[in-house]
User: What shape does this take?
Amino acid sequence: MNIFSRIKKAWYDSIIWEMIDDEFYDSLEESLIMADLGASVAADAVKKLREVVYDQAIQNGEGVKQALRDILEEKLNVGDTSLDLSTKPSVVLVIGVNGVGKTTSIGKLAYRLRTKEKKRVLLCAADTFRAAAGDQLEIWSERAGVELVRSKEGADPGAVLFDSLQAAKARGTDAVIVDTAGRLHNKANLMAELAKLRKIIDRETPDAAKETLLVLDATTGQNGLQQAKVFREIAGLTGIVLTKLDGTAKGGICVAIAQELGVPVKYVGLGEGIDDLQPFNAKEYVNALI
Ligand code: GDP
Assistant: This one.
């Protein structure tokens, strides 16, 4: 250690150490775990923060906060957060367990694409397992002012998807958003079904831009990471839609998913209304989290 480093260290130790001590870092780590970032991500963030605070001789609370913001933002920046809808049609497969807000998010996304991006959107009701799923999607298609292709309960999801893609090609649709069943308790069935849907998309629209969005409930906590792992294995993921961020849940699990699986959040759900879906902004999210 050269003389300058020694002076810096002595100065740093004497002034700062009293304020930003082990207790501070421990309680910060605990808070990050409480916000669902997960133990290893929280520990890593705090370790990095210690290094930055030391290296840059940060000596005020705002400086520490900003350093933490930068660290978390960097963890979240793992890929393009916009949807690739560069072909006509593009296909957005939406997956997730029941109750997370899948249908609601599809409705909001369809509305957003139609009104803000002037896209012609078609919803595909490929969750034929529950009659209610198709009915609910139909209500959302009417609210959003977009088209819908559906069949009756128990119909082959692959056939509904096939019809949707044919309709999209014939009508000059910009984006087909596909609702799928979310029965994780039977992983083998789900895997076979999603693999079949993917095959149909690849066969019928080989050159289409494709997105696979996992819808996650911000209140899910650590289980969200497990869901993301399973769905990524089954279907591959290009992004996350994090719902119910309007409640008390911070949804910190998305930091763990970004860090551990490299999948970015693309949209956040901030309520039950049709306008309550926003593109993800890491800076704003981290600000709210901290
Ligand atoms: P699905 O089973 O995954 O299709 O879930 P739904 O779309 O039916 O949503 C389940 C419940 O969550 C419904 O009561 C929705 O209104 C509600 N919901 C969905 N997204 C949000 C959100 O961003 N915020 C809030 N507060 N509620 C939401």
Observations:
- The longest helix spans residues 187-204.
- The beta strands are 90-95, 121-125, 147-149, 175-179, 210-217, 239-243, 265-269, 277-279.
- Residues 43 and 121 are 43 Å apart (CA to CA).
